[in-house]
Amino acid sequence: MEQPPELAGRALVVVVDDRTAHGDEDHSGPLVTELLGEGGFMVDAVIAVEADEVEIRNALNMAVIGGVDLVVSVGGTGVTPRDVTPEATRDILDREVLGIAEALRASGLSAGISDAGLSRGLAGISGSTLVVNLPGSRAALRDGMATLNPLAAAIIGELSRLEI
Fold first, then answer.
1. Could you give phi then psi for residue 102, rounded to 5 degrees?
2. What is the dihedral sign for C-alpha 115, 39, 96, 56?
3. Whole-prediction pTM value?
4. 30: Cα within 13 Å, side-chain hemisphere
5. DSSP symbol at 30
6. Orientation of helix 53-65 relative to helix 85-92, angle to 10°
7. Which of 9, 134, 137, 157 is the most exposed place for a label (fewest CB within 10 A)?
8. What is the DSSP letter of 109?
9. Packed helices 28-38 and 138-163: angle between N→C axes, nearest 10 degrees
10. Pfam families of this UniProt entry (predicted)?
């Protein structure tokens, strides 16, 4: 019998999508929850918000204040005027972790996922929480989570050693 992965930490998923925030079926949240679980993360909640800087910032802040180890936002990282997730995220970060965002884009591009290259998503630390923006397409989420899970576990492990 296969052993479940060791708990890498607690996570929260923020889905940035106007339709989902207004009650349409959420396709991204369950997928990210499943992929985080495969990486050893326990997902406390999935929150859907409109593509609005204040709503996104409030959801990210709530997660950080709630003490989760990882916040993954999904959507709102592109180039249209409604894609404001990076701006909302930048406001709450204490410091960026450029290598994660670069790794996510590079991995997606090498897998032929065009919106991965268009993503303006950020990654960084707020307090002791890792915050990461991912594009909203299923392909970008699958590839991004495969890249993110081990990086997030390593960073969270490093942060937790500092808190001791």
1. -65, -45
2. positive
3. 0.94
4. 4
5. H
6. 40
7. 157
8. H
9. 50
10. MoCF_biosynth
Nearest to 145 by CA among 79, 77, 72, 66: 72
DSSP 71: E
Q: How many CB atoms lie within 10 A of CB 142?
A: 15
Q: Taking the CB of residue 39, how many other CB atoms lie within 10 A of it?
A: 20
Distance separating the N- and C-terminal Cα atoms of the chain: 34
17-119-39 Cα angle (round to 5) = 75
Separation CA 25–CA 41 (nearest Å)? 23
Find all residues with CB under 8 Å of 152, minimum gap 6, and list them: 8, 9, 39, 41, 69, 70, 100, 130, 132
Residue 156: CA atoms inside 13 Å, Cβ hemisphere, count? 23
CA 146 – CA 67 distance, rounded (Å): 24
